Amino acid sequence: MAKRRQSGILKNLLKPEIEELIRQKDWQSLKTVLESWHPQDIADLLEELPEADSALLFLILSPYFQIEVFEVLESDAQLNLIKKISDEKVKTLITDIAPDARVRLFEKLPPQIIQKLSSLLSPKDFKETLTLLGFPENSVGRLMTPEYIAIKPDWTVKKALDHIRAVGLEAETIDMIYVIDDSGKLLDDIPLRRLILADPKQTIQEIMDKSFIAIKAHEDQEEAAKLMRRYDLIAMPVIDENGILLGIVTIDDIVDVLEEEQTEDITKISGIGPKIDADIITKLKEIPLKKFYKSRVSWLLLLLLMDFITGGIIHSFEETIAKYVVLVTFLPVLVDTAGNAGSQSATLVIRALALGTVQMRDWFYLLGKELMIGSLLGLTMGLGISIMGFIRGGRVQIALVVVSAMIVNVIVGCAIGVLLPFIFKRLKKDPATASAPLVTTLADILGTAIYLGMAYLFLH
Q: 18, 77, 329, 421: which has the highest count of C-beta atoms within 10 A?
């Protein structure tokens, strides 16, 4: 039966009625209403209700819906449910949910809860979960599911289709079928459409094209996302160093990875972090004050210390500033413009590195290109400030200092913005760590030194 997707407005309109049915203990009506919804909408509702009501509603759902809803619940809501329902029901849930969903649950749980849940799993499921958890955090191995359909090259198409009918219900997806040899090595992937349209008497070998995209289990999840986006895949095989098929990654998991990576990049570019839970953005209203404070104070303290350098530079040019006080009035606009230009450059490079359209080897080319763009931007900004330089400065020399400093600072800011992401990537750090606040602060330091240094040279 098809399930309709509720809009947020409709769900909110129905919520008071749901709460009234709970008060009336009209469980049959509640079950009928909820099971006409999409599992994700039921999960959203459960997360909004008090924990006791949420558990009651969950328990009245049919087993199929319980599994579907549990898989898409947030980890906190999953933990709350586990604490409130019976061990027998917990055992059913963690046994029947997809292996990758079970791994995501175990990643978030405290050790004592993991120990309890592990004792409820069958030896086979426990071994499967341990295997997936054995891969590095954020690796493709943690994301994959071992529930796929594999066939042999010497089978006929008819035998392959019979096999799919027999085991298809247990697979994560049947859109792609994987061909392996006797040792488990991946030979090809075949779309189900090709199998259905082929002559039943043909062998699998005859319809193989031996053209497939696979990824190794220890690769980063973000690399899987890039490959699936580039080649428009709905599922991708995961292999070991010897080409043995270990599992598959599906598009629904990749969508979650992309959301997490983009959220992480936004927090880093904004100077929130450097390692930050995505909940800071995705659960903005629920995050406690202490967590907000800890997520932001580290970068601000570091940038504060760096700003002392700017103050020290200004202090060392006290004599020049005292003689030409008007110089101070141009300082904010000069360093801010350089910082903004650098932030633009950094944002473009960080995004290009994330998408894979730029590689480490491209740094020199991009630096040269950005120096040319920075020169043009600097000349434009210099022209823009030149009039005010003559009017406010009162002297040609001061105007020349201001214009020259603007041109040089914009070029330097652009160079910083291009180079920092590459430097962080070379150091095996996330390029997004080259955040806008860091670029701006470095541009402030160098911009102040350049401006006051030029003033000293031109005016003495």
A: 421
For residue 375, give its domain range: 282-459
CA 299 to chain centre: 20
Close Cβ partners of 42 (under 8 Å, ≥ 6 residues apart)? 34, 57, 61, 65, 69
Judge whether 263 lies within some domain.
no
Q: Measuring CA to CA, which residue among 380, 457, 367, 451 is closest to residue 409?
A: 451
Tell me the DSSP string of 45-91. HHHHS-HHHHHHHHHHS-HHHHHHHHHHS-HHHHHHHHHHS-HHHHH
**pLDDT tens digits for 167-189?**
988 888 899 999 999 999 999 99
* pLDDT for 3: 47
Residues lower than pLDDT 50 in the chain = 1-4, 7, 274-276
Q: Which residue has the tokens 């995004």?
A: 351
pTM of the predicted structure, to 2 decimals = 0.60
**155 shares a domain with 123:** no
What is the spatial distance between Cα 59 and Cα 307, in angstroms, rounded to a whole number?
57
- How many Cβ atoms from other residues are within 10 Å of residue 64's Cβ? 11
DSSP one-letter string for 169-188 = GGSS-SSEEEEE-TT-BEEE
Cα–Cα distance measured from residue 173 to residue 150, given in angstroms and rounded to the nearest whole number: 12
Instruction: Give the integer Cα–Cα distance in Å for 353 and 129.
Output: 33
In a domain? residue 374: yes
Tokens 């947020």 belong to: 8
Note whether 337 and 406 are within 8 A (CB).
Answer: yes
Length of the chain: 460
